[in-house]
Amino acid sequence: MSKTNMPEGFLWGGATAANQVEGAWNEDGKGPSYVDGLIASRDIKKRYAKNAPEDSYFPSHQAIDFYHRYKEDIALFAEAGFKTYRMSIAWTRIFPNGDETQPNEKGLAFYDNVIDELIKHQIEPILTISHFEMPQYLIDEYGGWANRKLIDFYANYAKVLFERYKGKVKYWLTFNEINMAMFLPQMALGIRIDATDEEKYQAIHHQFIASALAVKHGHEVDPDNQIGAMLGYAPIYPLTAKPADVFVAKQKELQKLFFADVQLKGYYPERMLAYFASQAIDVHFAEGDLELLADYPCDYLGFSYYTSTTMSNNKEKDLSEGNGILGERNPYLEESEWGWQIDALGLRFGLNVLYDRYEKPLIIVENGLGAVDEIEDSGEIIDDYRISYLGAHIKAMQDAITIDGVNCFGYTAWGCIDLVSAGTGQMSKRYGLIHVDRDNEGKGTLNRTKKKSFYWYKDLIEQNGLN
After folding, report:
1. In the prediction, which pLDDT does 49 show?
2. Where is the active site (predicted)?
3. How many C-beta atoms lie closer than 10 Å to residue 338's C-beta?
């Protein structure tokens, strides 16, 4: 064991999503995505405004302008010592409508440049193929993932990426937080917010098949490719030791893990098929679907971790929300300014659960604290609260690796640079190690400033986690 207690070659870095950082929403042939129609609001159900007035503010349209400033931002990532950068491809840059047969060359060229810039700085790219930005055309014309035709559109899109970036990109994620489709069906699936569970599970099944095809094509194009699944994970604790509370929490946990079960184990668990039957949920499997899932499971599991939650059998509930996951408030935990409960030990707990269950490599691809940052008169941003949050969670991760024997090969802090919040469209909910001069109304210079946490994280990476 090294004196740093961390594996050699551990991938320290940061993470963002295209629709939250790039901007340039209609440049160089890019088509409109679902997110391009979202206005800023703390209530995500009210954010979609297809017929909004022309003067409405759409945060994704410019975001933080990574599209034009990627060299500056990647240089900052390199200065912080990043070994990896988890990013996503905007589907609508490659296929503006989503159903074309030939890709948009200007979109591919943009990501050529970004990936080459990362490689120049010795930063390993991790690419998410679909991160909550599906083409609006696929929703309007096909009904989103409820339509099986999207499997072929996605598979074609993924194959184009594998072929274009062969030899440059090794790590891929098929869908961002695939389980969030149950909570955010509009954003994740392109279907109605009030869709039935049967409609959601059918659309999710289509994503499972698309993911398996991506694994198939990715390995055929380059056997060295590692194609991962990605889960939005929050451990579910029973609120009390009452057997009914323990049982409810366990059932909810298993329903969430079902998404990773299918993608990593390659089959639908019997308990989930029994649940479908008990709820009269009829998910149609086409001929060959089950064989495809079995033959092409994902190689590793990436997951986001922000909070844990609790469950009880009580009808009267004190609710707490975090990352789209609604549970009950844990009386033993503190909360962020957005009401997300803070539980560093929950990350160690989760790492153990996921590694014991799947016995495949893990990577934490999102973890961070959304908070309001104040700029001092000196221009400094003293975000000790963020350092405290990240430090506690990284220590929990280290313990899972070095004490519990969990195979976790990387950690990418979300979002390493301030970005548009996916849940609210706000800029004031800041996660970054790097401040971006931008407010909730889209005003500001877009200038980048390193926060105190930037220097802390840089030192941590230099010491491979020793501090």
Report:
1. 64
2. 366 (nucleophile)
3. 19
**Whose CA is closest to 15, among 313, 361, 417?**
417
For the beta sheet containing 309-311, the strands, ordered from the edge strand earlier in sequence to the opposite edge, are: 236-238, 309-311, 325-328, 319-322
Amino acid letter, residue 331: P
- Say what the pLDDT of residue 2 is: 43
Query: Which string of b and e fits 417-447 if b means at least 16 CB within 10 Å?
Result: bbbbbbbbbbbbbbbbbbbbebebeeeeeee
Q: What stretch of H or E contains 160? A: helix 149-164
Determine the structural domain holding residue 344 and report its residue range: 11-462
Q: Give the whole-angstrom CA distance, residue 207 versus residue 134.
A: 12
Neighbouring residues of 391: CB distance < 8 A, sequence distance ≥ 6: 456
Give the residue from 2, 78, 9 showing the smallest Cα distance to 417. 78
Nearest to 256 by CA among 181, 173, 362: 181
Q: Is 342 helix (H, G, I), strand (E, B) or coil?
A: strand
The residues annotated with a catalytic role in the active site are 366
Among 159, 174, 167, 164, residue whose Cα is nearest residue 119: 167
What total of structural domains would you count in the chain?
1
Residues 15-65 pLDDT 10s:
999 999 999 999 999 999 999 988 887 666 666 666 666 678 899 999 999
Compute the distance between CA of residue 182 and CA of residue 83 in angstroms, rounded to an integer.
Answer: 33
Could you give the CA distance from residue 436 to residue 447 in angstroms, rounded to a whole number? Answer: 6
Region of 162 please: left (phi>0), alpha (psi -120 to 50) or beta.
alpha
Q: Which residues of 155-179 are buried (b: 16+ CB within 10 A; e: fewer)?
A: bbbbbbbbebbeeebbbbbbbbbbb
3-state secondary structure of 364: strand
- Model confidence pTM above 0.85: yes
Sign of the CA dihedral with 392 first, then 397, 398, and 400 last:
positive
| CA 152 to chain CA centroid, nearest Å | 23
What's the CATH code of the domain at 26? 3.20.20.80
Note whether residue 1 is domain-resident.
no
In a domain, 162, yes or no: yes
One-letter amino acid at 233 equals Y
The answer to the question of residue 2 being in a domain is no
Between CA 199 and CA 181 the distance in angstroms is 11
Over 393-427, what HEC string results?
Answer: HHHHHHHHHHCCCCCEEEEEEECCECCCCCCCCCC
Q: What is the CA radius of gyration of the chain?
A: 21
Q: Region 163-178: what's the mean pLDDT?
A: 98
Q: Is residue 467 part of a domain?
A: no
Between CA 370 and CA 347 the distance in angstroms is: 17
Distance in angstroms (rounded) separating the CA atoms of residues 427 and 406: 35
**How many CB atoms within 10 Å of residue 379?**
8
